[in-house]
Amino acid sequence: MKNIRKYLHPIIILVVFEAVAVTLWLTKNNLFYLFNFSYIGLSISLGVFLFIRKYKHARRIVQLLVGLYMLVYLGLICRENMQIEGFWYYLFTGVFEAATIHYAVAKIFGPLIFGRGWCGYACWTAMVLDFLPYKVPAQPRKRIGWVRYITFSLSLIFVAALFLAKVGQMERIMFWAFIVGNLVYYGIGIALAFAFQDNRAFCKYICPITVFLKPMSYFSLIRIQCNKDKCVNCGKCKRVCPMDVDPTDNARNRKNGTECILCMECVKNCPKNAL
Ligand code: SF4
Ligand code: SF4
Ligand code: SF4
Known about the structure:
Blueprint: H1 2-6, H2 8-28, H3 31-52, H4 58-77, H5 84-93, H6 98-108, H7 111-114, H8 117-121, H9 124-129, H10 147-164, H11 170-195, H12 201-205, H13 210-217, H14 236-240, H15 265-269
Bound molecules: iron/sulfur cluster (3 copies).
């Protein structure tokens, strides 16, 4: 009984993902959804299980399991554009399939429950950026977050222009847009990480998906909270945070609150178990 309580979170995660998997499988009559959401649910619950067991690379394992699956299997083998251009594309064609479901679950409505868990545990861009040397930003935050609205608009304009011009072979173009888009993201992400001495600079200033993620995660059910009775204001949690969040402030509008990727570095490093 004690063990069940200890591992309640990975069990709940598994059950929720299985419920989504079975519901989509039966309603869409497509076995892919059963496989897809079962795999992702299993990967995430495995990560949470390892985290409870205090395995220090738990998050990275989930990131690699889910990120590589999305990038290599869904993107390159199944030729599904899972980037934001793919979302616009399937939205314009009125097809409620993998990319639109993926966005709805992971990036638009899901963040109301699990915040920016996507960014901490599943994104294949950050999966690579997190290997770089600047895990904690070595420079103060820049005031260039507005760039994300430009990249967001460009992605929309790009796909809208293809539709307006009635370009043929759209599936093929979207596949190549996925490959080129990813290479560009990796190139800019790595360059910015070194320029700003911050692995997550791309996430903070450029990523167009944050236009969805940030407002939705403001209302997130799951969030890091500080027990003020235990906290001794040592500041360690703020120093190890890759996203410049102040986890000691419980207010929703805390400093960079919508940047939290639930990486748990603050929790792991708090000497008083206050988070
Ligand atoms: S902000 Fe964008 S690039 Fe960074 S982890 Fe989230 S989705 Fe990925
Ligand atoms: S690390 Fe823990 S004790 Fe130190 S400031 Fe953060 S919450 Fe408080
Ligand atoms: S260190 Fe804590 S506050 Fe910062 S992103 Fe990770 S979980 Fe969120």
